[in-house]
Amino acid sequence: MRTLIPAKELKKISVITILIISSVCFSFSFKNNNAYKNLYLNRFDDLNRELTLLASEIRSSDLSEKEVENLKQQIETARLKLKGVDFWLRYLEPTQYKKINGPLPVEWETEVFEKFEKPYKRNGAGLTLAELYLKEKVKNKDSLLHLVQSSIDASRAYLADSITGRLSEYGTFFLANRLFLLNLSAIYTTGFECPDTNNIIPELRSMLISVKDIYSNYDKSFPSTSLSKEYVDLYNKTISFVNNQPGDFAEFDHFTFIKDYVNPLFVMNQKFIKTYLVISKSFNDYTLNDSCSSIFDKSLYNAQNTKGIYSFIEDKNILQEIKQTGKLLFYDPILSGNNKRSCASCHKPAEYFTDTALQTALQFDGHQYLPRNTPSLIDATFNHLLMLDGKHISLQAQAKDVIENPKEMNSDEKEVIKKVLSCKEYKEIFKRFLKLTPEENEITLNHIVSAITFYYGDFSNFYSPFDDAMNNNKPLDETCKKGFNLFMSKAKCGTCHFVPHFNGVKPPYMGSEFEVLGVPADKDYKKISNDSGRYNINPATETFHAFRTGSIRNAQYTKPYMHNGIFNTLEEVIDFYDAGGGAGHKLDVTNQTLPVDPLKLTRTEKDELTAFIQSLNENIIFEIPPLQLPKSSDKNLNARKIGGEY
What we know:
Blueprint (H helix, E strand, L loop, with lengths): L6 H25 L2 H27 L4 H28 L1 H8 L4 E3 L12 E3 L3 H8 L6 H15 L5 H4 L5 H17 L13 H22 L7 H15 L10 H22 L40 H16 L11 H4 L48 H10 L8 H9 L2 H12 L9 H13 L7 H8 L5 H10 L17 E2 L4 E2 L1 E3 L29 E3 L21 H9 L2 H4 L18 H12 L32
Antiparallel strand pairs: 1-2, 3-4, 5-6
């Protein structure tokens, strides 16, 4: 006789089973992980010894030309020791890591956690900054020593029981390995944190060998959750591939490295995470998706919730109804104060949800222009902070701001709700939606904007020919491949526009980068744009004229470019970067984060870069506008036009 177990009880049993398996694996691992943990401790000692030696050398140095060269050699040696333990350090304690190898002297944290707290200032330190400091004309021994001593002080955190104890958990290995693989694709080969480009590939080779030993010691210590032979074999082939590549990172085949080696390793590691029931205890994994099957899968990380107030709804039919309502509202000027402007007035769907005809959009008065270019809404879902200055933390807050902004749609919540509910079609559907959001007692602006964001958020889920090459091994033109390799090396684009979305969000995909480029107010470079950018939200020396790094996906169709729409072609944008930004054009930009030195790109290289950027054009299926808008009981509202009048 078969006994049926209730669904709730079955779920409870499944959870208990997972916990038992995890507990058994943890217990076994704890008893047998000496080799793995000892390797960590030994390599950490090696790094600390080199840092201590470097600090001693600085104290006794007079910073003469000869001794500066000696210190550079010492830093390179220490960096190689760092690469031997980087696999763990970057994952286990990312805050302290920035003091050991922070790429920026001052960083205003704008991580995903800004959704919960104000941005705060963090001073960088460590080997990258020490090496950069030695290149400066005026040097101060105490300042240099501070950068290295800060690394030594920060390193103590890595010996705390709370850190070393996590090495006894097999799950920590796979999660650290995931971050390692993501950084192989986005960070380690670009020069983002390696000042001397001659050392990028040598450091990569050293790191790959070091991680091979980590893998070997892990498998000895955790045989019940070991790596597969397939994974180890591919990793060994990865090492061979890199060893056979030129030592110059500008000649390195970044495309093949990621497509044929790093991404397949990532796919296998994701399967290990699922198979071994790995559960994260680190905020490093906060946004990453354990079910994602490729670095170039649009589900890799979650930055924005397009559902908003409808987050808990899973019924596909209801979600489709919400989406269709959002589409109507997107085209409906009923949201504006004068019933003449809709979301589609500025974000034209057929133009990739931007406006290619105007440098900046018209203000509400229909005469003046807004100070900033209309950004595309496509792939906005992959930014933790929204607007070019990072003003908003959610798509819904951004939509509300546009509706209520006097210079944009010039309306308010009460007026919008009153007008929307005057339409029978809207009123009936939002009454049904209200029942699905029990935390709300009445229909609010949240219901309206959440339907809108759910509608346009779907357009961020399409793929490009470049993605198809990475994910499905489809052919990609050789010119595009060369352009990608340039993008990741000589052109230095990859140090700000990170794989896979080519925006300012880098592994572990929790922070939105802001850069000071020195964008001009005019094409003659008479002065810098007077837009203060991020400074308006978070006033600081480093944020003056800083703007969030946007995605270059679909760039061919989202002109004009830069925050003020000053450039009209990709060629103009590339020329701007090639010359070293605003400072490279002799503008006074004291806090520019873009390197001032010219890239010296050839005409052919610029064409290759353009070809790569165009390979990121996504194959988006745009819908036709609605044929009509809901009728209102207020006859004065029934003259409104689909998409607005201006």
